[in-house]
Q: What sequence folds into this?
């Protein structure tokens, strides 16, 4: 397991050279050092590296600047060749759970809209992942995506190809209940390495 120390915030380093010296000696001088210590306690091999070493490893291997590839280039144990063809990262994006504000307010703070409707409509809420099999109408097909609920029962679906509006709730099947994140398959790197 590897940790890129360059993305953590610096701890109480008195000067820039002090931080570099600590890193050179292999002592992580970061707020993430508690995480480092807990990972080390598991008994698994854990390696850290600076941002400069990560960039050096990435550029000498001819890899593009992407977070999932940087994670493979941290530290001195990075192999000379990385087989990344047909490897696709799992992309997790924070979407939130909505907000607690009951209604919109005007420029001076007075309510200017009606209160929010129900959060759940016919068992679905915004953010749920669903499979939709439309059997009638001009939007026939099978879709998988993130649900955007409407109180009328005519939902929207946000997919990789775009947003599909006005799908009836009877076509929807739950895949995953909303947990504040969206999950997608990322694009891989096609050139041989």
A:
């Amino acid at each position: 397991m590897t940790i890129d120390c360059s993305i953590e915030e610096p701890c109480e380093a008195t000067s820039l050279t002090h931080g570099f010296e600590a890193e050179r000696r292999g002592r992580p001088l970061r707020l993430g050092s508690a995480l480092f210590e807990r990972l080390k306690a598991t008994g698994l091999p854990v390696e850290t590296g600076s941002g400069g070493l990560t960039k050096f490893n990435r550029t000498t291997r001819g890899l593009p600047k992407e977070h999932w590839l940087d994670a493979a280039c941290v530290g001195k144990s990075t192999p000379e060749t990385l087989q990344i063809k047909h490897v696709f990262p799992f992309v997790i994006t924070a979407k939130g759970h909505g907000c607690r504000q009951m209604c919109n307010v005007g420029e001076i703070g007075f309510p200017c809209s009606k209160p929010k409707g129900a959060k759940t409509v016919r068992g679905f809420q915004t953010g749920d992942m669903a499979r939709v099999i439309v059997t009638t109408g001009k939007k026939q097909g099978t879709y998988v995506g993130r649900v955007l609920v409407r109180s009328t029962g005519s939902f929207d679906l946000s997919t990789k190809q775009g947003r599909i509006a006005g799908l009836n709730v009877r076509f929807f099947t739950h895949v995953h209940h909303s947990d504040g994140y969206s999950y997608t398959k990322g694009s891989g790197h096609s050139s041989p390495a």
